[in-house]
Amino acid sequence: MIIACPNCKTKYNLPDSKIPAGGAKVKCSKCAHVFKAAPPRTEPEDQALDLLENPAAKAPQGSSQAFEEAFDEAVGQAKPAPKPAPKPTPRPKPAPEPEPEPEPEEEAQAEEESFGEQAPAEDEAPAEEEIPDEEDEGPGLDMDLGASPAREKMRKKPPVVALLLVVLLLILVYGAYLLQPVLPFKLPALPFSLPGVKAPVAAEKAAESPANRVKKIALLNVRQYVAPNEKAGPIFVIEGKAMNTFDTPKERIRVEGALYDEHGNVLASKQILCGNTLSHLQLQVQTEEEINAGLASEVGVLSNNTFLKPGMDTPFMIVFFNPPKNVKEFGVKVVDALDPAQ
Question: Were 317 and a residue from 2, 5, 181, 239 both cysteine, which residue would form a disulfide, CB within 3.0 to 4.6 Å?
């Protein structure tokens, strides 16, 4: 129960059990004012609820008509409200029976009827399209999943290109062999003959003897003399020229010089590549090593003994140091001649 001091208006919470029916004097702890706290008044509604909760209790004496009305109202509120009737449980719908699969003809007819209908909405997932077999294809439809004409063309294209390249290469090779006489280099011999090409085949070249390779190399202006050398004494010199009389170019012509006695026996011999010669002054003042190096110089060979066309010649010089005293004659012969680029 809430009571308030009439002097300072301070409010206090005082339990109802502390206040007797006749009231009680209390003292304000704030202003020390003493006043009487009356018990709470009982309302007719509260009396009626107490009577319902405790049937053994009696109605207070002198209860007025207001109490009776409150009692009747409380009794009406105390009655439990009727429970609502349960809602009937709906019966489950029977599962739809599966539709029979249409025959191929009916399926094709259904596809024709559905052609041109409106596309399904975005939220609907379109059904997977079934690819018909070759037997089920309609007229005018190309559903062949195999190699299309474009793919077949792509597959046939690389072999055709490769064949054209091979043919072009063969034409170039044939033209090169036709122009061999005017080319500055020698093409390798072929194991077969070509129309219009006069190049010898490899088998004939292999069977050709060394004598046939040099039979048309002619020696010109060949002479011999003895020259005094300051370091090595007298030296025996043979010099001349080798001319190509073949119909084809030749190169790296090699000659051999020999010294004979009165009976024709060989006293000394020496081979050398044509292309190098020395002056009389060099023969007189240079050492044996310097003379041999000058006559074997690769520079002179490349300059004077390479790709000799028909009618061209190359010089040569052979030097014998410490020649025998019984030399009666000498001789020179061609021992080798090569075709260019061999």
Answer: 239
